[in-house]
Each structure stands twice: as C-alpha cells, then as structure tokens.
Amino acid sequence: MTIDESLRSTVSNVFSNQRIAVLGVSKNDDPYSCLVAFVVTDDLRYVIFATMRARKKYRYMQANPRVTLMIDDREHKPTDYTNTTSIAVVGTAQEVDGTKRSDYAQLLLNKHPTLTDFVESEDSAIMEVKIEDMYVVDNFESLRKISFDK
Predict the structure, then answer these.
(1) Does 2.30.110.10 match the CATH number of domain 5-147?
(2) Is pTM beyond 0.85 here?
C-alpha cells in the first residue's frame, strides 16, 4: 500500500520518538496488556521487541499470535486530548531466529542501548509483529487507517 507522505511522516515521527508501546495479547478469551520497548522497521511493516520466553506475554503469543500495540506521543498535559497522535497497530507476532534475529536485535539495541543484556540473553525471544493495519488518531477525532497486504 502507498502511504500519503504527510501521514508517513506523522507515523514515522511517533514511532521514532517513542520508546515504549502497550502490547495487547489474549489467550482463551483472557486478555492481557503490558509494556514493551520497541522499534519499527523503516518500511513501517514490522514492529520488533524482545521478551523473555518465560513471560506470560510470550506464552499468550504462542497460543494466539494476533496482537495489538498502542503507541502515542502524549506529554501528560491538559492539551493531550487534542494534541496527541496515537497509533493502534494490529498484526501477527512470531519469534525470529538466525540472521533475522541478529539483525532485529541490533535494530532494537540501536534504539535501546541500555537493554543489551536483556536482548542478547539466551532466554530472550526477539519478536516480529507483521503489521496488517494501523489506525492513526490525531486532532482528537481524526481517524485514518493504513492497511497492508496480509
């Protein structure tokens, strides 16, 4: 899909300036949310994050790889209601290995250098979320949807 340059700029700015996303997962109708340090690939197709395999979020993604992520640029000010841009990502998560794991780990560490021990741990999984849809909300009620081939 082709993304309007203004919208691409907005989305890229939010993704590059924010460090934490809220990950939503579910298993057997039991939803769960948590924070993850993330990075998005330059082509805006994949969200990358690391998690320990022993964590609840990992077990839930193994059972149901459909996930959501919420990323926003709020500043905790009264004007956030009208000035915040939020991006809801819908996609499918999977653990990566081999060269892709190495490449994604480096991409994560470029943005989050303090997470080296965590990302490089043998117990850590590098997760790739293939983005299917993005819902971009700004100016309080303006909603734009970006869909990619599934």
Answers:
(1) yes
(2) yes
